[in-house]
Amino acid sequence: MGSLNNGGKKFVRRNEKLKTGSDISIGGALDILRSNLNAKDERPTIPLGHGDPSPFSCFRTTHVADDALANAVKSAKFNSYAPVGGILPARRAVAEYLSRDLPYTLSADDVCLTSGCRQAIEVIISVLSYPGANILIPKPGYPHYDACASANNLEIRHFDLIPEKAWEIDLEAVEDLADENTVAIVVINPGNPCGNVYSYEHLKKVAETAKRLGIPVIADEVYGHLTFGNNPFVPMGVFGSTVPVFTLGSISKRWLVPGWRLGWLVITDPKGYLKEVEVVGSIKQYLNMSNNPASVIQGAIPQILENTKEDFFENTISLLRQALDICVEEIKEIACINLLQKPEGSMFVMVKLDTSLLEDISDDMDFCIKLAREEKVIILPGIVLGLKNWLRITFSIDLPSLKDAMERMKSFCQRHAKPQYLKLDRRLTSEGYLPGSNLQSLEFHESSELKSQTRNI
């Protein structure tokens, strides 16, 4: 039988950069956690690891989107290949939608449609890459930026987000990191994973810093308008006259349809800073080698963007606010988890894990693996996002499931807590202490210590 070599020379060598990208991906981490689920546990698995609320009926998209897609299919006008960058009515609709929040008007020529925001990330990172270049990426952040930069041999330079300052960007660090080979700074607002919503003043400072450094801003606004705190959403494109902005977004989150894969890459550059480098042509050349979003989705997007009523968005925000409040109240009851900043947007809460209060948990990945195995609750370890011993919890699920998940997590943390850090909780019923209560956990620890002492006699 033949083998895949030729006189000792291998026929195939894989791209090792792809393995690196997989290792730092959210999907890769979630696969590990799912592989540790206990098949004998009949309780439902509760997914708090990624931002996809669409499986839950309370987060159903608007009928406007359903009707628009159905009409696009029935019309039979969108069965052909779409032109590179997207069909004109769809690009025009996105330009008009984004222009509502800007001091100037975008045109269809400023818009390229992509297969979700992830493809927009891949496109802009690839277009800006060249040998010896580097890019500034937030830590913690969305790991797809790191994966794409790594695959393009683009040096990654991380700048910190400061939790004590509502996860603001450390602008002094940004200035220290940048040099003549820096191609861009990535700003994610509203924030994934931290739930931050930056103020107008902070974003203005970001734009001024980028202008001083001579670099554009990649503004990831996939969670745009999903805000429920004091700061309203301010698009980075507002500062397009100060510095060129590449705005990345999609209908995935605000319309609750991540599987529809309709995103955009939009250039906000009213002063024409980018014309000399012909970046628009490079983007279209890249898209010519890639996939376009489905034609029927492009056909539906004008109706979706123009006709969705405000009450649909308000209902989504109300649900997210209720879910966040549940998360925050439950987290207060868990000694080993600390919430430094309450989120004001997106679908996530980032909390700090104190492993010193736990007996047999070594780090955040170990915590998440054992939580999945013992309680069938999946949350994302912070190491995947750039912060070791932090956890990202998604709250965009139905409220009963969220309450169940938080109770399971509370029980897990009590079960693994060191005895001296247990808070007495006298939730006593006729059948004894409630499962997972602190006194039950304390009895467990005392019983274990007694058995240990007996063995040593």
TrEMBL record:
> Domain named Aminotransferase class I/classII large: which ranges?
46-408
Cofactors, names only: pyridoxal 5'-phosphate
N6-(pyridoxal phosphate)lysine-modified residues are K253
Q: Which GO terms describe its molecular function?
A: L-tyrosine-2-oxoglutarate transaminase activity; pyridoxal phosphate binding
Name residues in a coiled coil: none
UniProt record similarity statement: Belongs to the class-I pyridoxal-phosphate-dependent aminotransferase family.
Q: Know the name of this protein?
A: Aminotransferase class I/classII large domain-containing protein
* Species: Papaver atlanticum
